[in-house]
Hints:
The structure holds two protein chains of two kinds.
Chain A: E1 13-24, E2 27-39, E3 44-48, H1 55-62, E4 71-78, E5 81-82, H2 88-98, E6 99-102, H3 106-109, H4 116-124, H5 127-136, H6 142-145, H7 155-167, E7 173-177, H8 185-202, E8 205-210, H9 213-219, E9 222-227, E10 230-236, H10 237-242, H11 247-254, H12 295-299, E11 305-306, E12 313-314, H13 321-331, E13 347-356, E14 368-378, E15 383-387, H14 394-402, E16 409-414, E17 422-424, H15 438-445, H16 451-464, H17 481-493, E18 499-503, H18 511-528, E19 531-536, H19 539-545, E20 548-553, E21 556-562, H20 563-568, H21 573-581
Parallel strand pairs in A: 3-8, 3-9, 6-7, 7-8, 15-19, 15-20, 17-18, 18-19
Antiparallel strand pairs in A: 1-2, 1-4, 4-5, 9-10, 10-12, 11-12, 13-14, 13-16, 20-21
Helix pairs in contact in A: 4-5, 5-7, 7-8, 8-21, 11-13, 15-17, 16-17, 17-18
Chain B: H1 30-47, H2 49-52, H3 82-118, H4 120-134, H5 138-149, H6 153-180, H7 183-190, H8 195-231, H9 243-250, H10 259-286
Amino acid sequence: MSPVALSRPVAVADVAGLRVSFTRNGSQLQALRGVDLRIEPGEIVGLVGESGSGKTVLGLSMLGLLPHAAQVDGTVTVDGVELNGADDSARRRLRQRALGAVFQDPMTSLDPTMRIGRQVHEVAGSTAEVLRLLEAVGIPDGQRRLRDFPHELSGGLRQRVMLAIALSGRPKLVIADEPTTALDVTVQAQVLTLFRRMRDEFGCAILLVTHDLAVASTVADRICVLYGGLVSEVGPVRSVLDRPAHPYTAALMASRIGFQADRDWQLPIIAGEPTHPASNPTGCNFAPRCPAVAPLCWEQRPALAAVQQHGGLAACHYQAGEDVARMLSAVVAPWITTTSKIREGGATVRQLSVRFPGRRGLHRSESFDALSDVNLAVAPGEAIALVGESGSGKTTLLRVIAGLQAPTSGSVTLGGSRRRPQMVFQDAGSSFTPWLTIGQHLEERVAHLPATSRRERVLEVLKRLGLPGEIARARAHQLSGGQRQRAALARTVIEPPDLLLCDEPISALDASLAATVLNLLGRLRRELGFAMVFVTHDLAAARLVADRIVVMKGGRIVEEGASDAVIERPTDPYTHTLLASVPEVASCG
Amino acid sequence: MRVRGVAGPGAMTLPGSRKGEPSRLRDVGVLERVGLVLLALLLMASLAAPLFVLDPVISVGPAFQAPSWEHFFGTDDVGQDIFSRVMYGLRTSWLSAVAVIVSAIVIGGSIGLVAGARGGWLDALLMRLTDTFLALPGPVLAIAVAAALGASLRNTVIGIAVVWWPWYARLVRGEVRALATRPHVDAARLSGVSSSRLMLRHLLPGALPPVIVTASLDIQILVLTLAGLSFIGLGAPPPTPELGAMAARGADYLFASPWIPLAPGVAVFVLAVAANLAGDGIRDLFDRR
């Protein structure tokens, strides 16, 4: 401690005017367009933004891990070292001395061939230190775990090992990129608490990169919202989320799916597409989507300015957050009540069991009962949410109903015309064959029609989902996340199904896109009258989309009932646990 | 086909990864480009050979003439023009190698595709069949085929093709199997596509890039294998212009008229090097891993 106290503590990380771009196929794609961000010692900053907003690139640049192909401008100073000017060995020394990292998927970050004891030992230096770290991150019985391989641990334990490795050098800053996205809700809650405890115990600052506002609000002290490669708003997490000054933050808050949302009304959403990385807007990059846009917004890029109401900064000429929140809630519409007609269909599942046989030989494994004696009836036109954690059997049940997985015993009977159910996959992008165009995928579903009417149907369904006709000629990787979601929905409804199966369609999406997808599903269901089975781990979303909630655990149904009843008066202890683990934006109580 | 204004930030994968992106000629190294150009020139020249060279199987002048402006590579023991024969020989070598590759891709590709896409007992049956063929020693089988059907270039090609396709069957089967677990295949099934369409449209195109890469590197090995078999007498009977056979026949005159065996030998070498470099170039173009 220097006796001369500085007026402002030295930031552990200071990003100033950071621009990062990549050249691809001759066009320049901008990931960051001039980002300023300070992280003070011991502070947890939640970095929020949709995919493509540049949040991962910002995290990588603070780790000094940007690829060499990136064109970088501006400065990133971490613990006194300017990373952009430093050479590889200086960056490496800095990472060793002051930085830790936790990524989304611990299975790919850990070496699958090395026992976890050795992996932690590599950075910790001594067995005593390894045991101390494992204990600190809440791994019970560390001594025994030392000899485990990563695949022998659960996802939560793996992420704890990653955290132990990240903390081993007593880092000043830990960058955690979507550390809980791949985890179950109950595990997520534990890991998030752990992050706070680690900060208190080790005194490290944490940059928590996430697409989930609720996750950020449960752990972060400050929140930084990125939009189109720029900081749109930054400040104390509670006050920012309570009184957002930037329209984008306001819109994210408005479209978030909480237990309070009114089921009879559509979710408020902002239309439009996120800033294209190859575009170069002169004005505010949120202007094309902003409900409160004014002429100045198109002409001049707003700088970050102090916001009185929350003590942070926002990049909006008018700090129009509250106006936008009002506007969005004023324009939401109730669902149409006149459902045209309910399609015959639905499904009856009787005493369904699925057992995955174990393997013999070198990689011996026990057989595994994914589903045991499951009975479920889906009435025509009904929407059911299957809620549960990984391993609960919810996805297996969906795949059996879809006919993609054969049951070991029991039966699935499809009602009505017994037409093949359609399915919305978790990752819309990977449900398209990479080398075929969207149009070719859509036409396959109406292959029985002559060519000209096939094309008409394609254009018709694209229009119905608010997509331009030229999407038909694009391939999935050329679309934005939102367009991919819509295209995937278009594929399922071009020929209306009797039963639509949805496998976690919103779990990886940011709030505004998730709300858009739920609105689309709600509208299509009411217009087309199909029944729906919606698999999710998110009880709030389940309540919003479904008439009935079915809670699964360990391959069995543990609770089922009307949506509101299950949420308000859960009877099974497991449902209680699930409900208690859901991170909520804390400020709105 | 790129659609303007459609690509969005969601489409931007992490920097450095090149998944799903068209490869560019820029990624191909200088040597590989030289190889591609050289191979293209050799092929064009040898395919157009009938237009500008002499008849390869008739005597065009005195025997044992040293290389000159009139006969670039000299003449051989019966007075045939060696340059003309080498040009025709290049064509024969190349086309035979391509014939083996194409048949291997067609046979092995179909078997691998069906095995990988269907799985189960059919997969097991087809793969054990493939393994059986893999166990056959290539040159020995080629000799056996030549012995049974008579020594000719066609029979040698058949002999080699019989042992060559299993590699492609395994390659395609592995790729298809990996692809078949991906969500887009499930999605296609739910779209109600027929199993043949599923295989041909949703699976096969994904297995092609590694096949093309392997094939482009195999060409060189095949050129050498075929030339080697011809050299030991399992190939085109004289006077067919075939590089291996020409080298074998000319070996007797290695010290007196070295151009007779060396010209075809060097031609095989140049073709193999060009094919190898071009193969590397094609790999750079197609391989995205």
